[in-house]
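Action item from last week, closing it out:
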Amino acid sequence: MEQDTTSPRAVLVCTEGSLKGQRAPVGADGLMLGRGEHCDMIIKDTGVSREHARVLLHNDAVWVQDAGSRNGCFLNGRRLSRHHTLSPGDDLRIGEHRFTIELDDPFPADGSVSTFGAPRPDGLTDPSASPPPAAFSPRPAPGRVPMRGLAVLAVIIALGLLLWMFGGG
């Protein structure tokens, strides 16, 4: 049987917590992590939501997104507010559990070659230049004003000042 060398071979590894040592391959369909029995990796931890986070492959990169959990996901000590790429050695904390990503040997003994990190046919090499599909898009962070809204506000203020200075009076 021929191996698929067109997608990265990434594995999510639990490094701390009751699941320590467990490994789950990350496929194109991704992995759902949480307390729910339907999750791909079930984490029995009171600090973990039923559907806590999703890890998936997209455009030769491994991505993580908080699935709207109450206690959040932390990547290298910082709380995630939107989707983010995961690299080998990154520390992903969910509740009392920690995870990292490992990549299979890019030059396995069978002679196949992993394409992870290789330039894509469209010439892009930065996975952040092409974020995951719309279904993966996070909710806007609470209390944040979109930049577009700030630009509109700045134009309204500028017009108001011009009217006041040159015609209002």
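Closing note: The two ends are 83 Å apart (CA to CA).
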